[in-house]
Amino acid sequence: PVVAVDQPSLKNVPSVGIDDRQAARKAATHLLSLHHKQIAIIAMELLSDLYVGLVDAQRLEQATHQITKLRLQGYRDAIEEAGIDFSQIPIYECRNDENHAREVAMTVLQRHPRPTAILAMSDILAFGALRTAQQMDLKVPEDLSIVGFDDIPLAWQIRPRLTTVQQPLIEKGVLAAELLLSKSLTKTAKVLGTRLVVRESSGIAPVT
After folding, report:
1. pLDDT tens digit string along 77-115?
2. Where would I find the beta strands (DSSP E) of 30-171?
3. For 151-189, what is the HEC assignment?
4. C-alpha–C-alpha distance, residues 117 and 138, integer Å
5. Which of its termini does the chain have fewer beta carbons within 10 Å around, N or C?
6. pTM (2 decimals)?
7. C-alpha span between 99 and 2 (Å, rounded)
8. Closest Cα partner for 42 from 130, 127, 111, 104?
9. Can you tell me the distance from the alpha carbon of 38 to that of 116, in angstroms, rounded to the nearest whole number?
10. Number of C-beta neighbours around residue 64 at 10 A
11. Listing from the earlier edge strand, what are the strands of the sheet with 117-120?
12. Beta-bridge partners for 146
């Protein structure tokens, strides 16, 4: 018996997940509501080739990692609705690793003009961006706002505490186990809810 959690999507296999596109849209909408226009994205892997760096249009078209694609679509929905050209938003890709995120964030924060906000596709990536900002003597959120995704325990333990999308990580595991242990595994898609948790890492865009 098999149950898929988040990905991959398998034919005739029950699954447990969230609406990643809608959840990511919430994160981007939050930053836009704070008047941020210079936004950068630190994304998880688009392809399984260990690439780290700036993402171009061709790579976006070739992307195979479904969660990354859906979250990018959610960011794009909100950004384009705000009248901003999504093709002008820099997207940097790396593995879901804090050290990789720190390296990428250094490049992001050396751009001119420097972004006033970062959408990180996971809390781990957000932590990397936060550490790099602090290393560069940038104040969060006065100089740079950061929004993560997941709401793992460290998100509310670090300082400043991280604004992030909360997803029911434990409930996902419980539901997956229940489906796995049930007598009949039907093609059931369980989509759980998410919510944006606003903390101190996000604030009004600085005047430039």
Report:
1. 999 999 999 999 999 999 999 999 999 999 999 999 999
2. 39-43, 53-54, 91-93, 117-120, 145-150, 163-166
3. CCHHHHCCCCCCEEEECCHHHHHHHHHHHHHCCCCCCCE
4. 12
5. C
6. 0.94
7. 33
8. 104
9. 5
10. 12
11. 53-54, 91-93, 39-43, 117-120, 145-150, 163-166, 195-197
12. 118
Name the nearest CA neighbour of 30 among 92, 78, 69.
78
Whole-number Å distance between alpha carbons of 16 and 171: 9
* CA dihedral (108, 131, 65, 119) positive or negative: negative
Distance (Å, whole) CA 100 – CA 184? 42
Helix (H) or strand (E) holding 190: strand 189-192
Q: How far apart are the two ends of the chain, measured CA to CA in Å?
A: 56
Matching residue, tokens 């990397």: 128
Tell me the two tokens of residue 125. Answer: 């990536």
Question: Could you report the per-residue pLDDT of 144-171, keeping only the tens digit for each?
Answer: 999 999 999 999 999 999 999 999 999 9
Distance (Å, whole) CA 68 – CA 77:
14
Q: Which tokens belong to 184?
A: 């009949």
Contact 162, 201 (CB under 8 A): yes
The tokens of 16 are what? 């447990």
Residue 128: what residue type? G
148 token code pair: 């993560």
- Alpha-carbon span 151 to 168, nearest angstrom: 9
- If you search the block for the tokens 């509501």, which residue do you land on? 33
Contact yes or no for 47/61 (Cβ under 8 A): no
